[in-house]
UniProtKB/TrEMBL annotation:
InterPro entries noted in UniProt: DUF1573 (IPR011467), Ig-like_fold (IPR013783)
Gene3D superfamilies in alphabetical order: Immunoglobulins
Name of the protein described by the UniProt record: DUF1573 domain-containing protein
Superkingdom field: Bacteria
Keyword Signal: yes
Amino acid sequence: MARFKSFFVCAAFFALAPAGVVLSTTAANADWTDNVFPIKSHNFGTVAVASKTEFQFPIYNTTGREMHIREVRASCGCTTPILSSNYIPAGEKGFLTARFNTPTFRGKKGATLTVVIDQPFYTEVQLKVDGYIRSDMVFHPGSVEFGTINQGDTKTGSTKIYYAGRSDWQVVDIRANQPWLIPKFTQVERGPGKATYELTIAVREDAPAGLFQDEVIVQTNDRSMPRVPLRVSGNVVTSLTISPKSIAFGSVKPGQEIVQRLVITGREPFAIASIKCPGWNVDFDQNDVEKKIHVISVKMTPNGAHGTQRSALTIETAGDKSITATAIVTADVISDQIAVIR
């Protein structure tokens, strides 16, 4: 009888032990994947047919070793996974783009994206997306893509909304997330159970340099699904750049001359017409030579202001189509006077 008890105890121990090991490993993997995949789900909300709808899941390789993603499986054809790279070096960042296939699917859809990692060790991570693709509203084209925009210029893009359904349906507003994106809408056609709107979006001249991927929200009078996003993207590039962009002089005495080396780069050959900075006398060797890169030494002297100074140093190019670029100069202009106590 004791032998049977011993057998059952041992059997119970070995039956439970693997489960404990599995739970421990799962918990460890969960901790690891939480660092590598800080975002594991995304809801696209309500989107229109044919709208370009994507979300980028960031992937941070915090393992200290090169990571290899063997494959990504999607549980539904409504979503296409796109990896930025199968290999992510240690300490680097990658992306998994989830593209919602709005041209071919309708209604409430969702997918699980299973990411299979085999280096530095094997694990599988599940990411989830879902959303609702409404069948009565179509964007054509599905997004507004501006391409390259020169900073300081304005650029306008457009798309159309085609609606079929209620006779009283209408667009009531359109809003952007950025102050430099200016959206407008106009009704161009209306008939029994259908309507067509044209949306125009302008990128204002004060748009910051760099890539942007944003959206504008189309507000309709549909109570159940009033807000529909439209993807907007582009790349604002500068015609002229200054390096360094931030110049810190520290403590400076009135009349003290400081020499600062600047590298000015343009897309096209240019000559420098002027360099100005409020609160400072600026002197440099001026010439009419046009080239894409100028390396110059600028002599700067505070011209009377005292205390903490923050000024914009502006470089303007020569010619009929002159362009400007700015850098920020900071300094603490101190007085060299000695106070006398009587």
